[in-house]
Design a protein that fits this description.
Layout lengths: L1 H18 L3 H7 L4 H11 L15 H9 L1 H10 L3 H4 L1 H7 L11 H12 L3 H4 E4 L4 E2 L3 E8 L4 E7 L3 H22 L8 H15 L2 H15 L5 E2 L12 E5 L4 E2 L3 H6 L4 H19 L1 E3 L7 E3 L5 E3 L5 E3 L2 H16 L2 H10 L9 H12 L12 H14 L6 H20 L5 H16 L2 H15 L6 H14 L3 H5 L10 H23 L1
Parallel strand pairs: 5-10
Antiparallel strand pairs: 1-3, 2-3, 3-4, 4-6, 7-9, 8-11, 9-10
Helix pairs in contact: 1-4, 1-10, 2-3, 4-5, 10-11, 14-19, 14-20, 15-16, 15-20, 16-17, 17-18, 21-24, 22-24
Length: 516
C-alpha cells in the first residue's frame, strides 16, 4: 500500500513539474538527450491536469516545487547547495526558494507557542507581532519579551513533521528510480543525497537543535572581532519554538542603505569571507547558509549572522585535505593538490596522479593573472565537477556543502565589492592555518592530545604490563593476552602490545610536557 501511495505521489510530482515547466530543466540536469526528454514530456502531457499550479513569477523548477508544498521547497533549497547533482543553472534557480512561501495564520502560531511553552501568550510576551518572514519549515514573529527585550520568535509550520514523513518516502522512490535507470546518476548517490536531506530537515524540525547549533557557533566566534550572532533565549524555546534576541541592523542585501551609512563595503566583503574560512578551517563548523537574507550589518558595523538551520561540520582530516587543496591552487602547486586528493582517497590510486594534476592545472591556471571581476568560484566549481566525473571521484557531501557555501559567499562579497577577489582574500587565512597545523608546532600539540586521550587507560597499564612480561618471559600463548579487561575488548595480541607500547610512550611524553 505504501508503495502505491509513493507511486501516486510520484505521478503528481511529475504532472506538477510538467504543468509548470520544471520537468525539462531537471531532465537536462541529469543528462537526458533531447529525444528522450521530448518523449518523457509527451508521455506526461495527458497527466497535466493532475498537477498543481505554482506562482507564475518564479522560475519553472521553483514554481513547481512551491506548488508541491513545503517539503519540496526545502528539498529545493538544499538541492541548491548541491550543483554537482542539480547543475549550476538549476542550483541558481532554486535559490529563489529562500523565504518565498506565504505565512500561516497568526492564530495558529499563537496556539502552537502556547502549547509548546505551556503558558498563555500574554504571560510570555508583552507583544507578539505578525510574521515578517516565512520559509518552508517555519516563520518568524517579532515580539517583546516580558523583561522588555526585543526578540525574534521562530515557529514551525503546523503539521510539517507529518507532511515531511509522507513526502520523504516518495523522495527515496525517485532516488532509487534514478539509480536503477540512470547509471550516470549513481556516482552522485541520489539515495545518499535524500538521506542527507532527511537528516538535515529532521534536525531543522527540532528547533532545540538549531538553538544548540547557534549557541555552539556563537561560542566558537566569541573572540572574533566584527562578527556576532543573536543570543538564544532558552526559557522561551522548545522543540517547535525558537526565541532569540532581535537583530538590529541593515540587511546585507540593501546596498543603498549600506552606502548611505558610509560603510566600507569592500572591507565588509573581506571580513565575511575570512570569517567563513576561519570557521571552516579553525573550528570545522561553519554557517552553511550565509546568503543576504541571513546577514545584517549592526549599528556598530559588525556583521550579524542568524538562522542556524543549515550548518556544516568537517573533521580534522578533511580540514587538512581541504586546506591542502586550496593551498595548491593558491601556490599553483597542482601536484601537491593531486597528492592531497589521492591521500584522502578521493581519487582511486588506479588513476594516474600526473594526469590528475594536469586536470587540476586546467582549473587553476585560468584564474592566474585574471582580473578579479573575471574570476568566478561558480565556474571553477563547475569545471571541478567535470574533472571529478572524468576521474571517477565519488561526491563528498561535506566538501560539496563547503564549496557551495563559498560560491554563495562569493556572490554576497561581489555584491558589496564588484572587484572582490576570492582567492586573494582566502590566501592569508589558508596560509595561517597551514603554518599552525602542519609543522613541528602542530606535531607537539597532536602528541600532547594523543597522550591525554591514551591516559584514560592509565589504570589498566599495570595489569597489561604484567601480562606483557608474562608473555615475553614464559611464552604465554596469545589467548592469555586476549583475557585483558573487558573494557579493551577482544583485541588481537599484536594490537594489544602495539597499543600498550604506544600508550607507555605517549604517557611518558605527556608527563614530560606537563613538567617542562
Amino acid at each position: 500500500m505504501r508503495f502505491l501511495n509513493d507511486v501516486a505521489r510520484l505521478v503528481r510530482i511529475a504532472a506538477t513539474l510538467r504543468r509548470n515547466g520544471g520537468l525539462d530543466p531537471i531532465l537536462q540536469a541529469f543528462g537526458l538527450s533531447g529525444i528522450r526528454r521530448r518523449a518523457v514530456l509527451a508521455l506526461l502531457t495527458p497527466l497535466w491536469p493532475l498537477g498543481a499550479r505554482g506562482a507564475a513569477h518564479l522560475p519553472p523548477v521553483t514554481r513547481s516545487l512551491s506548488a508541491l508544498g513545503p517539503s519540496y521547497v526545502k528539498f529545493g533549497q538544499i538541492a541548491s547547495t548541491r550543483p554537482d547533482v542539480a547543475g549550476e543553472k538549476l542550483a541558481q534557480d532554486l535559490r529563489y526558494l529562500q523565504e518565498r512561501l506565504p505565512p500561516f495564520e497568526d492564530a495558529l502560531a499563537r496556539e502552537m507557542i502556547e502549547a509548546e511553552l505551556g503558558r498563555k501568550i500574554d504571560d510570555l510576551f508583552d507583544r507578539l507581532d505578525p510574521p515578517i518572514a516565512a520559509a518552508s519549515i517555519a516563520q518568524v514573529h517579532p515580539a517583546i519579551a516580558k523583561d522588555g527585550r526585543r526578540v525574534a520568535v521562530k515557529v514551525l509550520r503546523p503539521g510539517i513533521e507529518a507532511a515531511f514523513a509522507r513526502d520523504i518516502s516518495a523522495f527515496y522512490l525517485i532516488a532509487r528510480t534514478l539509480e536503477t535507470f540512470r547509471a550516470k546518476s549513481r556516482r552522485l548517490k541520489p539515495t545518499a543525497v535524500v538521506r542527507h536531506f532527511e537528516g538535515v530537515v529532521s534536525r531543522e524540525m527540532d528547533l532545540r537543535l538549531e538553538a544548540a547549533a547557534g549557541s555552539e557557533y556563537q561560542d566558537n566566534i566569541r573572540g572574533d572581532a566584527g562578527i556576532r550572532t543573536p543570543d538564544v533565549i532558552w526559557s522561551l524555546s522548545s522543540k517547535r519554538v525558537l526565541t532569540t534576541s532581535w537583530v538590529d541592523g541593515t540587511p546585507m542585501g540593501d546596498l543603498e542603505a549600506l552606502r548611505a551609512r558610509d560603510l566600507d563595503l569592500p572591507e565588509l566583503a573581506l571580513k565575511l569571507v575570512r570569517h567563513f574560512l576561519r570557521c571552516a578551517l579553525r573550528d570545522g563548523y561553519f554557517h552553511a547558509d550565509l546568503h543576504h537574507g541571513n546577514l545584517k550589518i549592526a549599528p556598530d558595523g559588525a556583521i550579524v549572522a542568524f538562522d542556524f538551520g543549515i550548518m556544516g561540520r568537517i573533521d580534522p582530516w578533511t580540514r587538512r585535505t581541504y586546506a591542502e587543496i586550496l593551498f595548491s591552487y593558491l601556490t599553483r602547486d597542482y601536484r601537491r593538490g593531486a597528492q592531497a586528493h589521492f591521500d584522502a582517497g578521493y581519487v582511486s590510486r588506479t588513476q594516474n596522479i600526473d594526469q590528475f594534476a594536469q586536470a587540476l592545472r586546467s582549473i587553476g591556471e585560468p584564474i592566474v593573472g585574471q582580473r578579479a571581476a573575471d574570476i568566478s568560484m561558480a565556474r571553477v566549481l563547475e569545471q571541478l565537477f567535470d574533472v571529478t566525473e572524468r576521474f571517477g571521484m565519488e561526491t563528498r557531501p561535506e566538501l560539496i556543502l563547503l564549496q557551495r557555501t563559498m560560491v554563495v559567499i562569493e556572490g554576497v562579497a561581489r555584491s558589496l565589492d564588484p572587484n572582490f577577489n576570492m582567492w586573494a582574500a582566502a590566501r592569508p587565512e589558508v596560509e595561517q592555518w597551514m603554518m599552525e597545523n602542519i609543522g613541528p608546532q602542530s606535531l607537539l600539540r597532536d602528541l600532547s592530545e594523543t597522550a591525554r586521550a591514551l591516559s584514560r587507560i592509565r589504570p589498566l597499564l599495570p595489569k597489561l604490563a604484567e601480562r606483557l612480561v608474562e608473555f615475553s618471559e614464559h611464552g604465554v600463548q596469545p589467548a592469555a593476552v586476549y583475557a585483558a579487561p573487558s573494557r579493551l575488548g577482544r583485541f588481537r595480541a599484536g594490537l594489544v602490545l602495539g597499543v600498550l607500547s604506544g600508550a607507555l610512550f605517549a604517557y611518558g611524553a605527556m608527563v614530560w610536557l606537563m613538567r617542562s
